[in-house]
Amino acid sequence: MIGIIGSMKIEIDGIIDRMEEKEETVISGITFAKGLVSGVETVVAICGTGKVSASVCTQTMIMKYAPDVIINTGVAGSLSENLHIGDIAISESMVQHDVDISELGYALGYLCELELVYLPVDPKAKKIMVECVENAGVNYEIGVIASGDQFISAQAKKDAIKSNFNAIACEMEGGSIAQTCYMNQTPFCIIRAISDEANGEASIDYTIFASKAAKNAINITLEFIKKFNAENSEQE
Ligand code: ADE
């Protein structure tokens, strides 16, 4: 089974619309829709905004459905000069830019219990995701994606996240989905379409472009579901 998480309805509706034999279960106020997408067993959830909601959703999805892989699809602000509105960021690894115990001598973003800053995505899922983006002919970049409980819209904050973590995009859930998957040994991959450039115009751009950008990530995620399933079935 493939698990798909998005933080908002606009990031997920295009997948739920295609689901057949849908069965819904509500846990902790989050609706999990299980069914067939292109004939592939899939569970889909809208986690809500921010890291706590995303962790609750991910842990619940893992415990109830034990998916083979979890994909987080949605939108992000660009931190890279190569990524513009509508383009795609694929994560090499995830970081939580608002985790800061540097006063105690640790690196920014350091997760003490896991003893790391960067949470690596599943290489196999990433490879398939990259193939899907290339087939779609959309401009993309692979790199670090940074998450925190803030919408980034100030140049100084953007520059700090970029230089502290060498990140290409910022959003508000992927890092906690990654940590929850990592703690449960569940493979994960994050795909985000650019809705804004995380600068002074971000709130206006986001309002105009988020919905359209989200569709780009959804279309690639739909292709991923087919390809991941085909490659997994070949190996069985
Ligand atoms: N998601 C989309 N754009 C974002 C931004 N600028 N900051 C945080 N999350 C986002």
Structure commentary:
β3 and β4 form a beta hairpin. This protein is globular. The chain is built from six helices and ten strands; from the N terminus they run βαβββαβββαβαβαβα. The protein has 236 residues and is of the alpha/beta class. The protein has one domain: Nucleoside phosphorylase domain (Rossmann fold, 3-Layer(aba) Sandwich). A five-stranded mixed beta barrel has the order 5-9-8-6-10, surrounded by four helices. The structure holds adenine. The site of adenine has 14 residues, from β5, β9, β10 and α6.
Outline of this structure?
With 236 residues, the chain is of the alpha/beta class. 37% of the residues lie in helices and 30% in strands. The protein has one domain: Rossmann fold.
Strand percentage: 25-35%
CATH architecture: 3-Layer(aba) Sandwich
SSE string, helices as H and strands as E: EHEEEHEEEHEHEHEH
Radius of gyration: 17 Å
Q: So, the CATH homologous superfamily? A: Nucleoside phosphorylase domain
Treating each run of at least 4 consecutive H or I residues as one helix, how many helices? 6
Number of strand elements:
10
The coarse silhouette is globular
**Bound molecule kinds, no repeats:** adenine
Tell me the span between the first and last alpha carbons. Answer: 14 Å
Alpha-beta classification? alpha/beta
Taken together, the total number of domains comes to 1
Instruction: Sketch the major β-sheet.
Output: 5 strands, mixed, barrel
Looking at the structure, the CATH topology is Rossmann fold
Give the rounded overall mean pLDDT.
97
For the biggest β-sheet, the strand order reads 5-9-8-6-10
- Please identify the top-level CATH class: Alpha Beta
Low-confidence stretches: none
Q: What's the helical proportion of residues?
A: 25-40%
